[in-house]
Amino acid sequence: MKRILTASLFGLSLATSGLAYAEPVKIGVITTLSGGGAGLGIDMRDAFQLAIKQSGNKDIELVVEDDAQKPELAVQIAEKMIQGDKVDLMTGIIWSNLAMAVVPNTVAQDVIYLSPNAGPSALAGANCNANYFNVAYQNDNFHEGMGEYANKDYKNTFILAPNYPAGKDALTGFKRYYKGALSGEVYTQVGQTDYAAEIAQIRASGADSVYFFLPGGMGIAFMKQYAQSGVGIPVMGPAFSFDQDVLPAVGDAALGVKNAASWSPDLDNEASKAFVQAFKAEYNRLPSVYAAQSWDTANLIVSALGKASVKDKDAFRAALKAADFKSVRGDFTFNNNQHPIQNIYVREVVKDGDVLTNKIIATAFEKHKDAYAEQCGL
Amino acid sequence: MFTALLIEQLLNGLQLGVMLFLMAAGLTLIFGVMGLINLAHGSLYMIGAFACAVVASATGSFWLGLIASLAAAAGVGALIEVAVIRRLYDRDHLDQVLATFALILILSEGARWLFGSFPLYLDIPKLLQGAVPLPGGGQYQLYRLAIIAVGIVVAVGLYLLISRTRLGMRIRAGESDREMIAALGVDISTLYTVVFALGAALAGLAGALVGALQSVQVGMGEPVLILAFVVIVIGGIGSIKGALIGAVIVGVVDTMGRFLLPSLLALTMPAAQATTIGAALASMLIYVVMALILAFRPSGLFAAQS
Questions:
Q1: What is the C-alpha separation between A280 and A377, in angstroms, rounded?
Q2: Which of A66, A350, B75, B250 is the most buried (most CB within 10 A)?
Q3: DSSP labels for B100-169?
Q4: Cα–Cα distance for residue pair A273/A156, rounded to 1 Å
Q5: Which chain A residues in 238-267 lie under 8 Å from chain B, judged by CB atoms?
């Protein structure tokens, strides 16, 4: 009897220690909170903070800093967080050029980085790293989905993206699945706000459709100018060009446009519904894809903290890789390169009452993997 | 079809130039008359756009928004001049740059605090929506033509103001000899405030006009400010005529470069490479032009004497 009691007590103590490693965990969040790209970073930060708050985990401490969308500033902040704040994990970067400046150096110092948005191809293939988890996507993915979907309707497309890593990944991704001809391919400047010259080229190109990747304010400017230009051929894009952060500013010009994403506010699963409701209740606006990905990132971290100590890197990495959390995107697993295997949907911009938002109309890929995973040695 | 494209791109260049002129005119006036480098000029552009967006969405009228943008930018400009700038005239340029840079940060964060980080909605007025046919079979956005018209009106108005009015005479006098006109009994500090508010109003007007075309958001002024500085350096600092010519040069060169360079390079290299290199070269082009002009005319095309 005594032995049974001791054994059960021992088992109980194991179980409780397995439930929570009650130790402080510091997470460094570098994201864009000022300048033209701030809307994206604020959605990221707000969703992340809300998810941590809802998890009830009081041991998590967030160190949030603004990178102002500047790579050199992001590098400085990362160094400060690693050396000064001694953070256990890092996350938050929105832009791929900033991720390229920060991530390789961070993971080399044995700090785990979880990307809530940027997924440059250079970090997905041969240069993948055990300390680098991408919870969002590989940059090509949404564009691959739209390329596949475009085959249905279009034969001759004009494609357009900013001249930075994600822009190149975007057009590469689109071309990988699109079988029609390209009537033009143009790279614009990052942060460009006037697209008159590009719209003139679209008009002269004889294209039957336009595919553009222009996140944040760039997309707003393009759509408004395009709608007024009288060109009139259909446009399509990834979710970034038509997401919740830009739709109010674009206005009705966006109605009916098809765009590709891994998530949409109307996606039918419990986690997603709870997320949209909680986000709306807290911030009084609809969440964007950036918010959804960030919410998932936070919940992935919380799930891993329940399984392993963040100080035990091997165990913690394994706990992250198991992806044992309720993703708002439904089925979510990590590929060998620690990038997601997930569905890519095609959405359409609709009006729900007075609010412009997106509705899923098709599934472009089920359990989609990125094209670079094979080159990754993990 | 190519002629139509060429005409459309020339108009695009002209429209960009006119918009830059509205910015550069204020910048060059302020520098010419008061010897002040005003980095916060881009923030006044942003204030104009925000004022227009807020008033237009509250009243439903873009035109009221436009008036509000002029009033808000001029008002904030005058306020800044009296509160901060006035203390900087006797300091060297480094102090001025530092103080006006601080103003950028304060005004940007202030706008973020008031209006949030998400872009505001501002649409083109009904009257100017749509496109008009061009000779050669193309089409052109009516609103952009309207911006060109506004720019021409402002250029003529400024010319008349400076060459025909008493205020203009004082501005010219202020440019050539600041101490002397003060000694002659002209109320120099009021003149400075008026000139600063005038420059601010022009920047606000540019912001409101462009806000309807692009997106109204915090930080929208700084990229334009850089181009406006290129314009006044090319045109000759202090010269309104130089600002006009410089703005049109920058606008046309930038637009044509972005359009022609990738296609020219495509003749000699694979298309994908040509688009990337072409885009990179095009973004450098105006600075190359600036360097060339400065090599032959070190003080710009129409340098004001000072």
A1: 41
A2: B250
A3: HHHHHHHHHHHHHHHH-SSPBP----GGG-SEEE-TTS-EEEHHHHHHHHHHHHHHHHHHHHHHHSHHHH
A4: 38
A5: 245-246, 248-249, 251
Two structure tokens written together for A184: 């033009």
Residue type (1 letter), B148: I
Instruction: Write the residue in B142, B215, B262 that is nearest to A217 by C-beta.
Output: B215
The C-alpha angle A296, A67, A109, rounded to 5 degrees, equals 70
Residue carrying the six token digits 């919380």? A302
Q: What ipTM describes this predicted complex?
A: 0.78
| Chain B residue with the nearest C-alpha to that of A250 | B121
**B114 SS3 class:** helix
Is A140-266+345-374 the same fold as A22-138+267-342?
A: yes
Q: Model confidence at A17, in pLDDT bands (50, 70, 90)?
A: very low
As a CATH number, domain A22-138+267-342 is 3.40.50.2300
Strand partners, A90: A28, A113
Per-residue pLDDT of B143-189, as tens digits, reads: 999 999 999 999 999 999 988 999 888 888 887 887 888 888 888 88
Of the candidates A188, A191, A201, which has its C-beta nearest B223's C-beta? A191
Q: Residue written as tokens 């249905």?
A: A152
Residue B177: half-sphere exposure toward Cβ, Cα within 13 Å? 6
In whole angstroms, give the CA distance from residue B7 to residue B133.
Answer: 12
Q: Which of B6, B33, B61 is nearest to B189 (CA)?
A: B33
Provide the 3-class DSSP secondary structure of residue A131. coil
pLDDT in tens, A166-210: 999 999 999 999 999 999 888 888 888 889 889 988 988 889 999
Residue range B52-106, pLDDT digits in tens: 999 999 999 999 999 999 999 999 999 999 999 999 888 888 999 999 999 999 9
For chain A, domain boundaries? 22-138+267-342, 140-266+345-374
The superfamily CATH assigns to domain A140-266+345-374 is Response regulator (3.40.50.2300)
pLDDT for A377 equals: 87
Q: CA-CA distance, A217 to B219, in Å (whole number)?
A: 11
Q: Does A204 touch chain B (CB under 8 A)?
A: yes
Residues 6+ apart with CB under 8 A from A316: A112, A304, A308, A309, A310
